[in-house]
Amino acid sequence: MKIILLYKMSQKKKLYPLNNILNLLDNKFKFKIIFYLTQNKMRFGEIKSSLFNINQQLLVKLLKQLEKDKLIKKKEFKGFPKKVEYSITLFGLLFKSLVDNMQKWEEKNKKILVKNTNKKNVKSLYDYY
Known about the structure:
There is one protein chain. A hairpin with a 5-residue loop joins β2 and β3 (83-88). This protein starts with a helix and ends with a helix. It has a single domain (2-120), classed as Arc Repressor Mutant, subunit A. The protein has nine helices and three strands. It has a three-stranded antiparallel sheet with strand order 1-3-2. The radius of gyration is 19 Å and the shape is globular. Residues 125-129 have low confidence and may be disordered. By secondary structure, it is mostly helical.
């Protein structure tokens, strides 16, 4: 029974080859954070002001996840007030080409994306799903 279950699980992984990357970058803000950090090192407040519609609690959570996944690194400076700086790691820098290609694709298809976005009339979460 265990062998059959393991076989089925391995077959599922073959069907969904993007599972690893989608689990790693499972939030739209993670892409944006990586995009900004490939441009320059940033402090927490700079990242927060660059991202619209994100609360502090979610940003802290996402930064911790990205740091845990070795995509970004956090440097803490001594002193008061506490200063923290985030930068991209070499592993995180590997995503630059992916993010750049997504940006190019977005620019190329901007008219269609805007048209489709305007069609969505979401009044509540129930309308979205």
